[in-house]
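Discrete fold record:
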Amino acid sequence: MRSATDLLDELNAVDESARIEAKRASDMGKSVMETVIAFANEPSLDGGYLLLGVDWAINDKGDTVYRPVGLPDPDKVQRDLASQCASMLNVALRPEMQLEQVGGKTLLVVYVPEADVTHKPIYKKATGLPGGAYRRIGSSDQRCVDEDLWVLRGESQPLHGPDSSILSDARADDFDPTAIAAYRRERARINPQAEELDYGDEDMLEALGALKRVDGALQPTLAGIVLFGKPLALRRLLPMVRIDYIRVPGNEWVEDPENRFQSIDIRKPLILALPLAEASIIDELPKGFRLPEGQLQSVQEPILPRKVIREALANAAMHRNYTLHSPTQIIRYSNRIEIRNVGYSLKEPAQLGMPGSRLRNPAIAAVLHDLHLAEAKGTGIRAMRRLAADAGLPLPEFHSDRQANEFRLTLFLHNLLTEEDHAWLRDYAGNALDPDEAKILIYARATGAVDNTACRDLCGSDTLAASLILRRLRDRGLLEKQGAGSRTYYTLSFPTERPATNPEQAVLPLEEVAIPSRGAESPYGDSINPHMSTPISTDELMGIPADLQARIRAAGKKPRQNVLRGLVLELCALRAFSAVELCRVLGRSNAGELTRNHLKPMREAGQLNLLYPESEKHPHQAYVAAEGEETSNE
């Protein structure tokens, strides 16, 4: 069991910790039990530590500094926690606890081991499932949903996943003989001795989980129809299970009814659809020349390695939720490829690329692995990152949204390491950099920001080592820290040649900025909007014409939609505005609501563009008026 001093040292050395949670004395209560449950539940985390009796503050460098403040009655806290762990949960937990003196203050260290998989999920008896169970996602405790319960039960549940469910309306003749033949052909090429090749089609499909015996009769499963179903069967049984390849001109999604996107709808069994999707992507990729070792003739290869594309497609096919009616989308922009599918990552995003996998569709995954379309044991993402780095490309970006229940993978097509980059690096930081520091600065320049996860991927380090690299660059004045806790990221300290941005316009992510309430009176009568509780700064007023300021004031608290959007357009025609800045200038109280109800529809209508279209969640994201878009003066 680790000491309180050791835990405090780690908390002060890293921006976030998945395995350590500090609590103030005033926080004793349900939040402590939620963390206990999360530590006990989270697979492969090996439990976690609670450090009770600690306070924290932000120092002048932007770091969170933890310090001991002690517990008013440590013995009572220890007894109460032990009693709650034994009585409130479906399975009694016995965490290890010890009281320690640090700086003359009494702290309580609590180690919660990971529960045996046969006991999971751990949950509050009074609440029940799924809401009474929690998972440790990054450095936060997240309430479970139904899919989380399936992950937590792991090997203790039946070996079949959701893709082994029976499709009641499916028939034996819904299987496509072409897909079955393609499987046999490719499997024989990879492993001629594969046992299932000696079976008849019916027995082979049962062995693969495509057929399941119910009351003595074989019936098609979800996996069977997805992998081997005829196109007409897919349309009848799973109408939205298809792959859409969409070609978008430029770097931004702009809905233009006069100029529809080029789109290919692939409605075929997965055995046939994935090679077709791969070929569609590769056909449009720029090619590079390579001279293989020992060869006299060069060969043309796509700038993005084929295996990266294959793994990306297999990842989407294995992990999407087939019970939801939405296609997998491959969106090809001029500078990147986005692959979107329904179903958030069952593995915590920061752990993507680490050994071990959380499979939503194990039967489908097994077939794709047998055909060498996917890596095994969760190593596919690591392989994608390694191959992209070897090709001189930025690492793929992975975005999982539990609330929206979607996953997005972005593959970049521009080179990361160029001679110009290295020349910039020498001018920016000199030569006193180690290789890892150089990678981080070049990555931050190319993408606008770098966080602990990206640093770990680039340097092959753990969380603590990555934090030390980032803080070292920060302390040398080369990076600036933004955000706090799990949302910490770093940006370059000095202006760079990245186009179309002014460093004075840099803004924090929406989650990091508290928008004041509109109802409060402002002591500054000359603010643009008198309903803001915090005065509008001079920088925010800069460049906004007096007549536009007057019209914003005249619009009042609840302007009509066309008036509000007209004002947004006029502002964004002046310069790039973040959602938070627009909220402050217009007197709106909720940046998320403004984005959802106005900014996103205006983007989809082609009125607004993103300042960083290649990365929608860019930490400095802002909006600019589309070129030629007329503004309204109503």
